[in-house]
Amino acid sequence: MRLLEIDDHRILEVEAPGPHLGTESDATDLIGEAYGQNADLIAVPVSRLHPDFLELRTGMAGAFLQKMQTYSYRFAVVGDISSAIAASTALRDFVHESNNVGQTLFVADRNELVGRL
User: Fold this and answer.
1) FRET label pair with 3: which of 12, 14, 54, 77, CA 20 to 30 Å apart?
2) Sheet holding 104-107, edge to edge
3) pLDDT tens digits, residue range 40-83?
4) Average pLDDT of the chain?
5) How far apart are CA 2 and CA 96, in angstroms?
6) Are 30 and 14 in contact (CB under 8 A)?
7) Closest CA relative to residue 95, chosen from 87, 83, 107
8) What integer is the mean pLDDT of 84-111?
9) Strand 2-6 relative to strand 9-13: parallel, antiparallel, unpaired?
10) Which residues on adjacent β-strands are paired with residue 45?
11) 116-30-64-96 Cα dihedral, nearest 10 degrees
12) Where does residue 77 rank: exposed (0-12), middle (13-18), buried (19+ CB within 10 A)?
């Protein structure tokens, strides 16, 4: 993990190689790391997410993101999720609403993330 400082934002950027993330315990670990580095946003590449994360019916994303909200951390999924969105109207609507609210962001790459900040 590395810390990026962009304008007034401190972003904990999780590297692409590594085990899948998606459990509440994974969220807690990321929150602890972000807290230790005084980050206000955690960015995770989509390749690091558990395959069930984007399957909303599993509840994995809901539990994970609720943990982020509970501890007031913004969270960004970085990468192409267009095929998952095309396969699920519920996910498409969730991503759209999440990006409008801004607590959780789904972005294609770091440049889009920076632009959304």
Assistant:
1) 54
2) 2-6, 9-13, 41-45, 74-78, 104-107
3) 999 999 999 999 999 999 999 999 999 999 999 999 999 999 99
4) 96
5) 28
6) yes
7) 107
8) 95
9) antiparallel
10) 78
11) 10
12) buried
Please report, for the chain, the start and end positions of each structural domain, with discontinuous segments joined by +. Answer: 2-116
Task: Decide: 46 and 76 in contact? Cβ < 8 Å.
Answer: no
Tally DSSP H helices, then E strands, for the chain: 5, 5
Task: Report the percentage of the chain scoring pLDDT > 70.
Answer: 100
Distance, CA of 85 to CA of 13 (rounded, Å): 23
CATH class of 2-116: alpha beta
Residue 27 has a pLDDT of: 97
Strand 9-13, strand 74-78: pairing: unpaired
Residue 7 has pLDDT above 90, yes or no: no
The residue-averaged pLDDT of 6-25 equals 95
**Structure tokens, 98:** 């999440």
Provide the angle, in degrees to the nearest 10, between the axes of the packed helices 24-36 and 60-70.
Answer: 30
Instruction: Indicate whether 117 pLDDT > 90.
Output: no
